[in-house]
Here is the input.
Amino acid sequence: MKKEKALSSPLSKGVESRLDSRPLVIGDYTLSSLVVQEFYLDGGAMFGVVPKTLWEKVVPADSMNRIKLLARLLLISGNGRHILVDTGMGSAWSEKLSAIYALSPFTLSIELQRFGLQMHDITDVIYTHLHYDHLAGAFELQDGHLQPLFPDAMHHVQEENYRYASHPHPKEKAGYLGGFVEAFGRQKNLNLLNGDTELFKGIRLSISNGHTKGQQLVTVFDDHLTLVHCADLIPFAAHIPLAWVMSYDIEPLTVFDEKTDLLELAVKESWILFFGHDPNHEAATVRRDEKGIVADRYIAFRHADSPS
Ligand SMILES: [Zn+2]
Here is the structure.
């Protein structure tokens, strides 16, 4: 076994220069970041037992104590595929719920056009999990019924998450609301996965159970560079501190342990962490300092060129 690098070692020259190159390319894939929607959730729920006096310094709240979240999707293009990770909240919401979430218009098709793509070009959708803010953007309302926006794509989710989402614990029922899980189950081309797997060459899915059962993180890697879509294990860069976990998490202690494992590896291997909800930070590398593991370098690759 080769000697491990010191945990706080700076990024290697090779990795550093690749972080600056646009578009961000890892292995056979070009990675793009799509901001498709804004919505608001209660700030206290997003930061669990962390006092507001601490979290509001990092993430300001509005007059209703809500904070802004993005639906930031990862688009992975290569080897003849355009793979979308998660879908946002979409447009199939009542006026009442749209107001509660202060939901902005859903701009996925506009974002895809930046790369010369249309909805039907998406070959695969990987769902980190089926909470409404990750799933509902896969549907639109037509005559009062949910219709799939990607009817011909393959839809990849962990079977455990799909089964659980269909019959969630009452505490979590609100996270799987709105009939979207049922509509998901009616689609063709479902790929229900059982555990960690390399879905395509250089794209690994790994289970993370603390936020909800059967969540999967998406990792794109080659020999030198790795990007991890942290899903709701680390939704904001502000959730990097181990104790900053959400009230939504079903097993906060498991989240703590899973974050510890992920962040240790991310420091050691100079991984890029991608944040699906953070309004200010798309992605970051991490390092260890006297407070623990902290964000090191923020990375923005949203304005990359065409992935095709
Ligand atoms: Zn979630």
User: Anything to note?
Assistant: The chain is about 20% helix and 30% strand. Residues 129, 131, 211-212, 232 surround zinc ion (CB under 6 Å). The longest strand covers residues 29-42.
